[in-house]
């Protein structure tokens, strides 16, 4: 029952943050590693995103910084740049989050993240 | 003159964020690569930290997420966990910033960052 | 109750794999981020290590390869090289796991991991 | 003669593990860096894969963990997920190898590796 | 005025090294993060590339080694392999730069970099 | 016999580049993974460092850029900063090699590498 609660709590949070895109990530895992989708919902969204102390805007901002720093995370950046917009971060704040990373990770990682942001912003008609 | 302004602006911001610890980083570079210290002041602090859109608490939070994600940045985490406290982030917010990174980078990177935070918090007598 | 089961299941598995060293990791988190310790137990050990398909020797072997590849994980390698020995991997198999990584990550990451292994093996008097 | 032996031994092992896909990697290097192809054969396959202590299933499992952890290695994962199947690992064991990495590298690296596995398994008609 | 000089100096150096490709990178940032383009010109090219002690061939060689080592930098490698050719490095020297990285980063990172080099060399008709 | 030649060729090159420090690395591996030391000599030094197209100064310069970029390679940087000095790079060229990496990897990785350089230069009394 508690696990169902973690799952439900996570599913709710996933819908709030990532919307249909998040659901797609979970669907894509069905055939090959369904438990992996369950862990994302239960652990990442049910356990972590629901915690107090930081709000969803702060959590998405941290997530973007972490993904941009790692590199090779274009698919995850796409989901979470959408998520960041969904929870109320502005395009300017998202771009600025990546710019703040330049002194710490250099230009290439930041240019890659900004290229994904540009694509997402265009699709959502936030820039022309 | 403009460069002097970038340098001065950066020096001021460095003092505001990192205090004496930041100054020590610059001093340590004097004998071997003095221009590197100047670039940190002019570019990282003069150009980036002084930008609008995000405040210093948000910038330090992003910096902590980026440094924790990279790994092998214990010295820089020490400086910026102090910086984060200096600009008003609480120990709870700092720990939570690292916890938010767990789903994206796993436990080892986060445990390493939290170990540095523990050491800094103890030194500043924020935990016993 | 289910969560208590995940926690208990994880605690049991942690004791089986890492022994007292694993417990120390959790204790060290008590003052600063106790939930982080709980997540390691519940998620890493309760959810993941208890899964079927791969046995504990295979899981530790994968963990060692992942930690060696990441770099900057000396503390975690220390715990898991001990863990690998505890679940029955031989010193030769552990060293060979790292050697298999050379073509994929190069010598530095492997040399760093082997240095930790040497230290652990000496402490357990497996090499002179 | 000894080098010819290393090369021959490596070529044989490459064929055993990676089949035609491995050969393609070597062919692609012919025009630009033929010695690089030779080093892969002689060193990675001739020197390392032929060693005792670990069998080919264990070696591919370690390789998958290392490649997934590094990130940005989609092409190499494609080759070695095929290789893992060729030497007898099941699709379940391959997926589980990646799942075991979640606590150590987080979800993004694992999701990227699982996406490549899904593509390979589909192509080999192991999943529908 | 001094800043204009840094910008002008950087623009000149960017044109010398990267030609039209570099300009394209800056143009792509116009809508989303124009200051990021300015920082690349002022800091990377105006401040760093114009320094004495190392010439442009040495600087591009270092840049290629750094980008190949990082991974996930295919777009930046494309720009800088072109840049390396523009400042006088031969295709052989570029390939050899990547080969020298093998012992330190392993084959996957190097194979990815060499694949970009092959594509650039073909486009410039340096290999058939 | 050919392998003996690779080994001998590598040993000679290792002595030329790294001197006694390189030998220490190999000695340290004796008890735990002697073949790993042999591979460093045969492959890294016998096969790679002896190749034409780039000279030893260029090779060490590339190695330093790669190690600094990776991070968590302080021990290897110590060996190769010594190696770089041994083959004729000046302290200024070594520092400049790291500075050239700043735009690509950010300040933390470069500060860590420069700290090792400072320590090596002091020990060799090249700076006061």
From TrEMBL, chains A, B, C, D, E, F:
Domain of life per record: Bacteria
Coiled-coil blocks: none
Domain Carboxymuconolactone decarboxylase-like: start-end pairs: 34-119
Pfam families: CMD
InterPro entries: 4CMD/NDH-1_regulator, AhpD-like, CMD-like
GO molecular function: peroxiredoxin activity
Protein name: Carboxymuconolactone decarboxylase
Organism field: Sporolactobacillus laevolacticus DSM 442
